């Protein structure tokens, strides 16, 4: 076991774990850490905790120090300059007519690298674009291709439910979602009904999926014959979360709803 602290580099993003050394850090403290080959400002998002080494990378780096006012001022300047850099880079992309969409730009803390995130249908030969950008910004340029879900996470927006996107507000990592989840929940399979702004299946399909799976195991399938307090019938509908079964009795035309506990299956 090893003591670690969880740190994020985006407001809603993956958590990276670092050793605190001797100094103690509080939640929301800004700290300087090494990420790959660069120094970054991160935010403490978990208290000190014990984790098994096998759940961590081979090398767990140590937090360098707490960020000071000069670091935070530099971070703010970098963020402001990155907005202008993104607009300039978009112009360069248009000039070269590259089939790519620039989404975000970010300077590293010490401005030794400028990172652009973009989306594209396939692979892009952007070598000449990198040269153009290096000549303008006089620093190392990195272009990162991201997916449409990452794009939605970066840009944010309002989902079909009328609330801010889950991925942009509290989901640190994307969770696997399948069309089977929509089927199990009895949702319309119309893509416009079950897709988010990114065009992929909505992340919220996962939230209640475990409850639906458990209910499906316990409750009778459609078409199954059951014994009700009013006689025998066949299941014609299910409300899985409420554990309510709709049954068409053999001697009646209209279906009757029963709690699952009232039924005896054959």
Folded structure, characterized:
By secondary structure, the protein is α+β, with helices and mostly antiparallel strands. It folds into four domains: 2-67, no CATH class; 72-146, 2-Layer Sandwich (GMP Synthetase, Chain A, domain 3); 150-206, no CATH class; 218-265, Roll (SH3 type barrels), CATH 2.30.30. The chain contains seven helices and 14 strands. The chain has helices at 69-96, 127-137, 148-155, 166-169, 179-184, 191-194, 209-218, and strands at 2-8, 16-18, 30-35, 38-44, 49-51, 65-66, 101-107, 113-119, 140-145, 225-228, 231-239, 244-249, 255-259, 264-265. Helix 1 (69-96) packs across helix 2. It is elongated, with a radius of gyration of 26 Å. The two termini are 52 Å apart. 17% of the residues are buried.
Please render the helix and strand layout as text:
Blueprint: E1 2-8, E2 16-18, E3 30-35, E4 38-44, E5 49-51, E6 65-66, H1 69-96, E7 101-107, E8 113-119, H2 127-137, E9 140-145, H3 148-155, H4 166-169, H5 179-184, H6 191-194, H7 209-218, E10 225-228, E11 231-239, E12 244-249, E13 255-259, E14 264-265
Parallel strand pairs: 8-9
Antiparallel strand pairs: 1-2, 1-4, 1-5, 3-4, 3-6, 7-8, 10-11, 10-14, 11-12, 12-13
Helix pairs in contact: 1-2
Overall pLDDT: 90
Number of strands: 14
Architecture per CATH nomenclature, i.e. the level-2 architecture of the largest domain: 2-Layer Sandwich
* Portion in beta strands: 25-35%
State the helicity in percent bands. 25-40%
Superfamily at the CATH H level of the largest domain?
K homology (KH) domain
State the separation between the terminal residues, measured CA to CA: 52 Å
What order do the SSEs take from the amino end to the carboxyl end, as H and E?
EEEEEEHEEHEHHHHHEEEEE
Number of domains as seen in the coordinates: 4
Radius of gyration: 26 Å
Poorly predicted regions are none
Number of helices: 7
The geometry reads as elongated
Structural class by helix and strand composition: alpha+beta
Give the biggest sheet.
6 strands, antiparallel
CATH topology title of the largest domain: GMP Synthetase, Chain A, domain 3
Oligomer status: single chain
CATH class of the largest domain: Alpha Beta
